Amino acid sequence: MKQLQLPAAVFLLVLFILVPVQLKVERPMLLLERFISGGGWVQMVFIAAYGALVAYKMQDPTKVQAWRKYTWFAFSVVFFAQLALGLSGFEKFLMTGKLHLPIPMMIVGGPIYRGHASMMSILFISTVVLSGPAWCSHLCYFGAIDSLSSGRKTRPGPIRNKWALKSTVMFLVIVGALVLRWMEVPVITATLLALGFGLTGLGIILLVSRREGRMVHCTAFCPVGTVVNLTRFVNPFRMYIDNNSCTDCMACTRFCKYDALKPSDIAARKPGLTCTLCGDCLASCHAGSLKYRFLKLSPAAARNLFLLITISLHAATMALARI
Q: What is the distance between the alpha carbons of residues 237 and 133, in angstroms, rounded to a whole number?
């Protein structure tokens, strides 16, 4: 029975998120509702059942890496397939009919250039508040591609000059957006520059991340990832390494795609700032030393709460995320 408690909770929470959207939002947000009257309710139940299935499977730490990787990639496929159909002339697949570039950098640079927040910015901030850095391991449509490209196991050794690269890219994005706004650069020019940034990121994913066996785009290039790293502490979820049971075997370092389990991190008994709480490392630790923390909850309860919130957000966002 206990194995069904988390899936049932995810099912109900997804419905709790989506029912007000179905009832209150004037333009149908659930895709099936745009084609069939009342279809949104069917889609809602289906996506809630999907979330429950993911939760059931991910309760087992040995299945987290595979299920997270492929469900996250499915999220990306659904997102970009709707974009492709929308661009092909099927406007019902677009959120508002107004096209925005599907590049994570726009979450940071877009509001600075425009002078006001976007729906995507609000969604991003909400997820960071609710589930900490899980945006970078469950919800980012670019990150799913980076995860798949990086393979199954990492190459030994840290990403060199990671923070210098991250800081430089973040600085250039912020200053560049401010300059474009100050100089009143036309939207089409700014859009082309953002597109170039996105294509550069895609090149890093397909070439560098694949070669290194690590998510180099997400960890060392993407400015949204840097924002997540720096703001993750607004959320109480943490991961730590139990000092009493850890044997310093370093097995977990081969399973971390985010460069957050270097020998120095293990010595400090906590993952580095680039940790996204993804949980891929749990099955690699035969001593069970890698644990979740949330205020005064036990590690098991803290992990279940993290899965409840994160998987529910993943499923609900899959149902709603469109350009």
A: 9
**Tokens found for residue 50:** 């999907």
C-beta contacts of 288-291 below 8 A and 24+ residues apart: 288/242, 288/245, 289/241, 289/242, 289/245, 289/246, 289/247, 290/239, 290/240, 290/241, 290/242, 290/252, 291/239, 291/240, 291/241, 291/242
Residue with tokens 């009143």: 184
* CA triple 151-309-144, angle to 5 deg: 20
When pLDDT is cut at 50, 70 and 90, the band that residue 27 belongs to is: confident
Model confidence pLDDT, tens digit, residues 157-202 = 677 788 899 999 999 999 999 999 999 888 889 888 888 998 999 9
> Quick check: 18 and 316 in contact, CB under 8 A?
yes
Encoding tokens for residue 133? 């850095």
User: What pLDDT shows up at residue 171?
Assistant: 93
Handedness of CA 195, 131, 273, 303 (dihedral sign): negative
- Which letter does DSSP use for residue 156 in this model? S
Q: Quick one: which H or E segment has residue 163?
A: helix 162-182
Residues in the chain: 323
Tokens representing residue 170 in the block: 């973040």
CA angle 171–177–181, rounded 5-degree value: 145
pTM, entire model = 0.89
What number of helices (H) and strands (E) belong to the chain? 13, 2
Going by the DSSP 8-state scheme, the letter that residue 37 receives in this structure is T
User: Poorest-confidence range of 111-115, 152-156, 190-194?
Assistant: 152-156
Are the CB atoms for 142 and 79 separated by under 8 Å? no
In the chain, where are the structural domains located?
2-320
Angle between helices 299-320 and 61-87 (to 10 degrees): 10
Instruction: Name, in order, each residue with C-beta under 8 angstroms of 84's C-beta and a sequence gap of 6 or more.
Output: none
d(CA 134, CA 219): 13
